[in-house]
Amino acid sequence: MSEHVTLPPVTDERPTRPAPARFARFEPGRALRLGLVRTGLETRMFFREKDQIAFVFSIAVVMLIILASIFTTRYRGLDVTVSQVYAAGLIGTGIMAVSFQNLGISIAVERDLGGLRRLAATPMPPSAYFIGKVGSVLIVAVIQIAILLGIGVAFFELELPSAIGPWLTFTWVFVLGLAAMTMLGIAASSVPRSARSATAVITLPFVVLQFISGAFIPHTDLPDWLLNLSAVFPLKWLCQGMRSVFLGEEAAVLELTGGYELGRTALVLAAWTVGGLVLCLLTFRWRDNRTK
After folding, report:
1. Cα–Cα distances in Å, from 248 out to 87, 161, 219, 257, 262?
2. Positions in the chain whose pLDDT score sits under 50
3. Global pTM?
4. Cα separation of 86 and 110, whole Å?
5. 104 in the Ramachandran plot: left (φ > 0), alpha (ψ -120 to 50) or beta?
6. Residue 207 CB neighbours (<10 A)
7. Each residue of 160-197: pLDDT tens digit?
8. Opening angle at CA 104, ends 204 and 236, nearest 5
9. Whole-number Å distance between alpha carbons of 97 and 147
10. Which residue in 47, 63, 83, 180 could disulfide with 272, CB within 3.0 to 4.6 Å?
11. Positive or negative: CA dihedral 265, 246, 62, 40
Protein backbone atom coordinates (compact mmCIF):
# COMPACT_ATOMS: atom_id res chain seq x y z
CA MET A 1 0.00 0.00 0.00
CA SER A 2 1.61 3.19 -1.11
CA GLU A 3 1.56 6.45 0.79
CA HIS A 4 1.19 9.77 -0.95
CA VAL A 5 3.43 12.55 0.35
CA THR A 6 2.33 16.09 -0.37
CA LEU A 7 5.25 18.38 -1.04
CA PRO A 8 5.00 22.10 -0.40
CA PRO A 9 4.72 24.22 -3.53
CA VAL A 10 7.97 25.56 -4.89
CA THR A 11 8.20 29.32 -4.52
CA ASP A 12 10.94 31.92 -4.84
CA GLU A 13 10.37 33.19 -1.31
CA ARG A 14 13.09 32.61 1.25
CA PRO A 15 12.28 31.85 4.88
CA THR A 16 12.42 34.93 7.00
CA ARG A 17 14.50 35.11 10.16
CA PRO A 18 13.49 37.00 13.25
CA ALA A 19 15.18 40.35 13.64
CA PRO A 20 18.01 40.46 16.15
CA ALA A 21 16.87 41.49 19.58
CA ARG A 22 19.02 44.60 19.62
CA PHE A 23 17.09 46.00 16.66
CA ALA A 24 13.71 45.32 18.22
CA ARG A 25 11.38 48.11 19.24
CA PHE A 26 13.10 50.41 21.71
CA GLU A 27 11.69 50.02 25.20
CA PRO A 28 12.88 52.81 27.53
CA GLY A 29 11.74 51.00 30.68
CA ARG A 30 13.63 47.84 29.78
CA ALA A 31 16.73 49.79 28.77
CA LEU A 32 16.69 51.73 32.04
CA ARG A 33 16.18 48.57 34.10
CA LEU A 34 19.05 46.77 32.40
CA GLY A 35 21.14 49.95 32.60
CA LEU A 36 20.75 50.05 36.38
CA VAL A 37 21.78 46.42 36.60
CA ARG A 38 24.74 47.24 34.37
CA THR A 39 25.61 50.16 36.68
CA GLY A 40 26.04 47.78 39.59
CA LEU A 41 28.14 45.43 37.47
CA GLU A 42 30.36 48.22 36.15
CA THR A 43 30.87 49.61 39.66
CA ARG A 44 31.83 46.21 41.07
CA MET A 45 34.21 45.62 38.18
CA PHE A 46 35.84 49.00 38.84
CA PHE A 47 36.45 48.37 42.53
CA ARG A 48 37.77 44.87 41.91
CA GLU A 49 40.71 46.31 39.98
CA LYS A 50 42.99 47.69 42.69
CA ASP A 51 45.44 49.11 40.16
CA GLN A 52 42.65 50.98 38.41
CA ILE A 53 41.36 52.39 41.70
CA ALA A 54 44.81 53.69 42.62
CA PHE A 55 45.35 55.14 39.16
CA VAL A 56 42.02 56.98 38.96
CA PHE A 57 41.87 58.28 42.53
CA SER A 58 45.53 59.03 43.08
CA ILE A 59 46.13 61.88 40.64
CA ALA A 60 43.88 64.51 42.19
CA VAL A 61 44.48 63.32 45.77
CA VAL A 62 48.27 63.17 45.49
CA MET A 63 48.51 66.52 43.70
CA LEU A 64 46.24 68.10 46.32
CA ILE A 65 48.38 66.85 49.18
CA ILE A 66 51.64 67.90 47.50
CA LEU A 67 50.61 71.33 46.21
CA ALA A 68 48.49 72.33 49.19
CA SER A 69 51.28 71.30 51.56
CA ILE A 70 53.93 73.31 49.73
CA PHE A 71 51.94 76.50 49.08
CA THR A 72 50.40 77.53 52.39
CA THR A 73 50.63 81.34 52.31
CA ARG A 74 47.62 83.65 52.31
CA TYR A 75 46.82 86.03 49.49
CA ARG A 76 47.53 89.62 50.40
CA GLY A 77 44.40 91.35 51.65
CA LEU A 78 42.34 88.17 51.60
CA ASP A 79 41.47 85.55 54.17
CA VAL A 80 42.15 82.83 51.57
CA THR A 81 45.18 80.55 51.41
CA VAL A 82 46.79 79.07 48.33
CA SER A 83 46.05 75.65 49.82
CA GLN A 84 42.33 76.42 49.81
CA VAL A 85 42.47 77.48 46.17
CA TYR A 86 44.12 74.20 45.22
CA ALA A 87 41.70 72.17 47.36
CA ALA A 88 38.70 73.73 45.62
CA GLY A 89 40.07 73.70 42.08
CA LEU A 90 41.41 70.16 42.13
CA ILE A 91 37.88 68.86 42.59
CA GLY A 92 37.50 69.55 38.87
CA THR A 93 40.57 67.43 38.18
CA GLY A 94 39.10 64.62 40.26
CA ILE A 95 35.88 64.71 38.24
CA MET A 96 37.82 64.59 34.97
CA ALA A 97 39.91 61.67 36.22
CA VAL A 98 36.94 59.44 37.07
CA SER A 99 35.05 60.30 33.88
CA PHE A 100 37.20 61.32 30.89
CA GLN A 101 40.34 59.40 31.83
CA ASN A 102 38.63 56.37 33.33
CA LEU A 103 36.14 55.88 30.49
CA GLY A 104 38.58 56.69 27.72
CA ILE A 105 40.99 54.00 28.87
CA SER A 106 38.56 51.32 30.07
CA ILE A 107 36.31 51.39 26.98
CA ALA A 108 39.35 51.29 24.67
CA VAL A 109 40.63 48.23 26.53
CA GLU A 110 37.22 46.52 26.40
CA ARG A 111 37.01 47.16 22.67
CA ASP A 112 40.52 45.84 21.99
CA LEU A 113 39.91 42.67 24.02
CA GLY A 114 36.65 41.97 22.17
CA GLY A 115 34.34 42.72 25.08
CA LEU A 116 32.33 45.33 23.21
CA ARG A 117 31.96 43.06 20.19
CA ARG A 118 30.50 40.31 22.38
CA LEU A 119 28.15 42.75 24.11
CA ALA A 120 26.92 44.01 20.75
CA ALA A 121 25.88 40.45 19.85
CA THR A 122 23.69 40.07 22.95
CA PRO A 123 20.01 41.10 23.30
CA MET A 124 21.05 43.90 25.70
CA PRO A 125 20.03 47.31 24.29
CA PRO A 126 23.11 49.41 23.49
CA SER A 127 21.68 52.22 25.61
CA ALA A 128 21.85 49.98 28.69
CA TYR A 129 25.61 49.70 28.28
CA PHE A 130 26.01 53.48 28.28
CA ILE A 131 23.59 53.93 31.18
CA GLY A 132 25.76 51.50 33.14
CA LYS A 133 28.91 53.45 32.33
CA VAL A 134 27.35 56.79 33.25
CA GLY A 135 25.86 55.40 36.47
CA SER A 136 29.17 53.91 37.53
CA VAL A 137 31.02 57.15 36.79
CA LEU A 138 28.48 59.07 38.88
CA ILE A 139 29.02 56.80 41.88
CA VAL A 140 32.80 56.94 41.61
CA ALA A 141 32.75 60.72 41.14
CA VAL A 142 30.74 61.22 44.34
CA ILE A 143 33.28 59.11 46.24
CA GLN A 144 36.17 61.05 44.68
CA ILE A 145 34.68 64.41 45.66
CA ALA A 146 33.99 63.17 49.20
CA ILE A 147 37.65 62.16 49.56
CA LEU A 148 38.96 65.47 48.21
CA LEU A 149 36.60 67.52 50.37
CA GLY A 150 37.49 65.44 53.42
CA ILE A 151 41.21 66.08 52.89
CA GLY A 152 40.64 69.77 52.16
CA VAL A 153 38.51 70.32 55.26
CA ALA A 154 40.68 68.22 57.59
CA PHE A 155 44.11 69.48 56.58
CA PHE A 156 43.90 72.63 54.45
CA GLU A 157 41.25 74.85 56.07
CA LEU A 158 38.71 74.40 53.30
CA GLU A 159 35.26 75.45 54.53
CA LEU A 160 32.02 73.88 53.36
CA PRO A 161 29.28 76.37 52.44
CA SER A 162 26.64 76.97 55.08
CA ALA A 163 24.02 78.44 52.70
CA ILE A 164 21.90 76.62 50.13
CA GLY A 165 22.92 78.87 47.23
CA PRO A 166 26.51 77.61 46.85
CA TRP A 167 25.32 74.01 47.09
CA LEU A 168 22.86 74.61 44.26
CA THR A 169 25.75 76.00 42.22
CA PHE A 170 27.82 72.97 43.15
CA THR A 171 25.02 70.68 41.93
CA TRP A 172 24.69 72.13 38.42
CA VAL A 173 28.45 72.61 37.98
CA PHE A 174 28.99 69.00 39.03
CA VAL A 175 26.23 67.63 36.79
CA LEU A 176 27.22 69.63 33.70
CA GLY A 177 30.93 69.07 34.26
CA LEU A 178 30.55 65.35 34.79
CA ALA A 179 28.24 65.05 31.77
CA ALA A 180 30.69 66.90 29.51
CA MET A 181 33.70 64.89 30.69
CA THR A 182 31.78 61.61 30.40
CA MET A 183 30.70 62.29 26.82
CA LEU A 184 34.25 63.30 25.89
CA GLY A 185 35.68 60.21 27.58
CA ILE A 186 33.40 57.89 25.61
CA ALA A 187 34.27 59.71 22.38
CA ALA A 188 38.00 59.70 23.15
CA SER A 189 37.92 55.92 23.70
CA SER A 190 37.85 55.49 19.92
CA VAL A 191 41.21 57.27 19.49
CA PRO A 192 43.64 54.62 20.90
CA ARG A 193 44.49 51.92 18.38
CA SER A 194 45.04 49.24 21.03
CA ALA A 195 44.71 48.55 24.72
CA ARG A 196 48.45 49.02 25.20
CA SER A 197 48.37 52.59 23.88
CA ALA A 198 45.15 53.61 25.61
CA THR A 199 46.72 54.88 28.84
CA ALA A 200 49.28 57.06 27.07
CA VAL A 201 46.85 58.42 24.48
CA ILE A 202 44.16 59.38 27.01
CA THR A 203 46.42 60.54 29.85
CA LEU A 204 48.43 62.99 27.72
CA PRO A 205 45.58 65.48 27.03
CA PHE A 206 44.35 64.98 30.59
CA VAL A 207 47.68 66.09 32.07
CA VAL A 208 48.13 68.95 29.60
CA LEU A 209 44.68 70.35 30.36
CA GLN A 210 45.42 70.33 34.09
CA PHE A 211 48.48 72.51 33.59
CA ILE A 212 46.87 75.04 31.25
CA SER A 213 43.52 75.18 33.09
CA GLY A 214 44.91 76.54 36.35
CA ALA A 215 44.63 73.31 38.32
CA PHE A 216 48.38 73.05 38.95
CA ILE A 217 49.72 76.45 37.87
CA PRO A 218 47.91 79.74 38.68
CA HIS A 219 46.44 81.57 35.70
CA THR A 220 48.61 84.60 36.47
CA ASP A 221 51.72 82.57 35.58
CA LEU A 222 50.47 81.42 32.17
CA PRO A 223 51.04 83.23 28.84
CA ASP A 224 48.05 84.74 27.08
CA TRP A 225 47.94 82.14 24.31
CA LEU A 226 47.67 79.32 26.83
CA LEU A 227 44.96 81.19 28.71
CA ASN A 228 42.97 81.58 25.50
CA LEU A 229 43.48 77.91 24.71
CA SER A 230 42.37 76.73 28.15
CA ALA A 231 39.17 78.80 27.89
CA VAL A 232 38.08 76.59 24.99
CA PHE A 233 38.06 73.40 27.06
CA PRO A 234 35.71 72.46 29.91
CA LEU A 235 38.23 71.75 32.69
CA LYS A 236 39.07 75.42 33.21
CA TRP A 237 35.39 76.25 33.74
CA LEU A 238 34.78 73.20 35.90
CA CYS A 239 37.61 74.18 38.27
CA GLN A 240 36.47 77.80 38.27
CA GLY A 241 32.92 76.79 39.13
CA MET A 242 34.13 74.70 42.05
CA ARG A 243 36.24 77.58 43.37
CA SER A 244 33.12 79.76 43.34
CA VAL A 245 31.37 77.25 45.59
CA PHE A 246 34.04 76.70 48.21
CA LEU A 247 35.94 80.00 48.24
CA GLY A 248 33.07 82.45 48.04
CA GLU A 249 32.84 85.93 46.55
CA GLU A 250 35.90 87.15 48.44
CA ALA A 251 38.20 85.02 46.28
CA ALA A 252 36.54 86.04 42.99
CA VAL A 253 39.21 88.75 42.57
CA LEU A 254 41.76 85.97 42.08
CA GLU A 255 40.15 84.98 38.78
CA LEU A 256 41.40 86.59 35.58
CA THR A 257 38.24 88.61 35.03
CA GLY A 258 37.71 89.41 38.70
CA GLY A 259 34.63 87.18 38.81
CA TYR A 260 33.58 83.54 38.47
CA GLU A 261 31.51 84.05 35.28
CA LEU A 262 29.01 81.36 36.27
CA GLY A 263 26.73 82.11 33.34
CA ARG A 264 29.55 81.54 30.88
CA THR A 265 30.60 78.45 32.84
CA ALA A 266 27.13 76.95 32.37
CA LEU A 267 27.14 77.73 28.64
CA VAL A 268 30.59 76.24 28.01
CA LEU A 269 29.92 73.07 29.99
CA ALA A 270 26.51 72.60 28.34
CA ALA A 271 28.04 73.14 24.90
CA TRP A 272 30.72 70.53 25.57
CA THR A 273 28.07 68.10 26.81
CA VAL A 274 26.11 68.44 23.57
CA GLY A 275 29.27 68.45 21.46
CA GLY A 276 30.59 65.39 23.27
CA LEU A 277 27.32 63.56 22.67
CA VAL A 278 27.56 64.34 18.94
CA LEU A 279 31.15 63.08 18.90
CA CYS A 280 30.04 59.86 20.61
CA LEU A 281 27.35 59.26 18.00
CA LEU A 282 29.80 59.90 15.18
CA THR A 283 32.87 58.06 16.44
CA PHE A 284 31.87 55.26 18.83
CA ARG A 285 32.35 51.76 17.49
CA TRP A 286 31.82 48.31 18.97
CA ARG A 287 34.70 46.67 17.06
CA ASP A 288 38.37 47.53 16.89
CA ASN A 289 39.99 48.62 13.64
CA ARG A 290 41.52 45.22 13.09
CA THR A 291 38.17 43.39 13.10
CA LYS A 292 36.46 43.02 9.76
Report:
1. 13, 8, 18, 15, 13
2. 1-3, 5, 7-8, 11-24
3. 0.87
4. 34
5. alpha
6. 12
7. 999 999 999 999 999 999 999 999 999 999 999 888 89
8. 55
9. 14
10. 180
11. negative
